[in-house]
Amino acid sequence: MPVQYGAVMLLCTLVAYILDQLTKWWVVATMSEGQITPVLPPLLHWRFIRNPGAAFSIGTDYTWVFTIVMVVVAVAIVLQVRKIASWGWAVALGLVLGGALGNLTDRLFREPSFGQGHVVDFIALPNFAIFNIADSAVVSGVVLICILTLRGIGMDGTRGTDEPADAPGDDARPTGGERGDDDR
If we measure between CA atoms, which residue out of 148, 141, 138, 143 comes closest to residue 102? Predict the structure, then answer.
């Protein structure tokens, strides 16, 4: 793996993680839980909540499961680093890793207890879940992974093709030497 792809992945991971942790620190330091602050009404508000579950507060009684899933995701991404030879994949995996680590930090070190901490969420859009920068990074990274996959771009930077090189029927194409004299 060329070092530049790993450096881009690390940079994206750090940017996502640091922005996530700084914004959560800012929310906890300046807002009270449940507080709603209009930003661009009616489209955007800050609404401070502590989420024990996943998106849309699913699985609130299984916080420890989300902690384990985030650890597995982070380890799986780190194990792929040597295979990355694509700028898009480096950015995508860096965003997913940074977001996973941001929410994992909350799960490990926030109340009520180690491994079961509640994630700080604060970005509120109408008729949607309340989320944070880590969630945005994960979703952005996953969308980019989907686009790269649909375009046939592998982690190693190669492009897949719709048809294998030696597809059936390739031998059936006429060549110039197979044409009769009458075709001139």
Answer: 138
d(CA 92, CA 70) in angstroms, rounded, equals 16
Structure tokens at 172: 């059936």
Q: Which CA distances in Å does 50 have to 53, 65, 69, 110?
A: 9, 17, 19, 10
Residue whose C-alpha is closest to residue 12's, from 111, 121, 137, 160: 137
96 burial level (CB within 10 Å; 0-12, 13-18, 19+)? buried
pTM greater than 0.85 (yes/no): no
CA pair distance 20, 26, nearest whole angstrom: 10
Query: If DSSP codes are grouped into helix, strand and coil, which group holds residue 2?
Result: coil
Phi, psi of 101 (to 5 degrees): -70, -35
Q: Alpha-carbon distance 176 to 37, whole Å?
A: 74
Question: Quick one: pLDDT at residue 59?
Answer: 56
Q: Which residues are catalytic?
A: 121, 135
Question: Would you say 98 and 133 are in contact if contact means Cβ atoms under 8 Å apart?
Answer: no
Q: Where are the alpha helices (DSSP H) in the chain?
A: 3-30, 63-80, 87-109, 133-150
Give per-residue pLDDT as tens, 163-181.
433 444 444 444 554 444 4
